[in-house]
Design goal:
This is Phosphoribosylglycinamide formyltransferase. The protein has about 210 residues and is of the alpha/beta class. The chain contains 6 helices and 9 strands, in the order E-H-E-H-E-H-E-H-E-H-E-E-H-E-E. Strands 3-2-1-4-5-6-7 form a 7-stranded mixed sheet, sandwiched between helices. A two-stranded antiparallel sheet has the order 8-9. It binds 5-O-phosphono-beta-D-ribofuranosylamine (GRF).
């Protein structure tokens, strides 16, 4: 499966995918890394391996719509058949979702629908989990729909929170989990074992 990875930050999730590919644990190829942030370190992670990268900064375009049309053009010409949002802090417009039906996935650092949706991204998620005194949190991989963090859930896994855990400890526990969950979801899709039925997902046995 050919992956286009969209990111805005450090790209440790991208790195986890690249590592799994290198270890032969993931039958995939990253054909494009795109960011809406010039200088996102995730771009560097790909550049070092000769993976094509592209930047689509909002301010470089007359409108968000035109930025997104350029992004779609790049996705199409990359030949990607799965778009992976790995810390991409941008809204994917409907016309891109329609171009890739059930072919865009996102990883979110909580057990959706808890602490998901607009306003909950990055550290804000873990701060919310901490403030609520939750005893478990986790990560979710889901298909992207027009509702932020609202698409059919592919995989979720929980992790325990100790009283001593601060926000950064929670963030680190979840990130470690994400680095396993995202490649696992991509592998399931690559094996054709993921079926969307309504707003639910069935994972077929091997
Ligand atoms: C991850 O926590 C991911 O769940 C969220 O943004 C963060 C990206 O981290 N969407 P990285 O850039 O992959 O290190």
């Amino acid at each position: 499966v050919k992956l286009a990875v969209l990111l805005s930050g450090g790209g440790t999730n991208l790195q986890a995918v690249l590592d799994q590919i290198d270890q032969g644990a993931l039958s995939a190829e990253v054909v494009l890394i795109a960011s809406n942030k010039e200088g996102a370190y995730g771009l560097t992670r790909g550049g070092q391996r000769g993976i094509p990268t592209a930047v689509f900064q909002r301010q470089s375009f007359p409108s968000k719509d035109q930025r997104d049309r350029e992004l779609l053009r790049a996705l199409k010409s990359s030949g990607a058949d799965l778009v992976v949002l790995a810390g991409y802090l941008g809204q994917i417009p409907g016309f891109i979702i329609e171009a890739y039906p059930n072919q865009i996935i996102n990883i979110h650092p909580s057990l959706l629908p808890c602490f998901g949706g607009k306003g909950y991204y990055g550290e804000k998620v873990h701060q919310g989990v901490y403030n609520r005194g939750m005893k478990v949190t986790g990560a979710t991989v889901h298909f992207v729909s027009e509702e932020t963090d609202g698409g059919p859930i592919i995989l979720q896994e929980a992790v325990g929170i100790d009283f001593e855990d601060g926000v950064s400890d929670i963030q680190q526990k979840v990130l470690t989990l994400e680095h396993r969950l995202l490649p696992e979801a991509i592998e399931l899709i690559a094996e054709g074992r993921v079926e969307v039925i309504g707003n639910r997902v069935k994972i077929r046995e091997r």
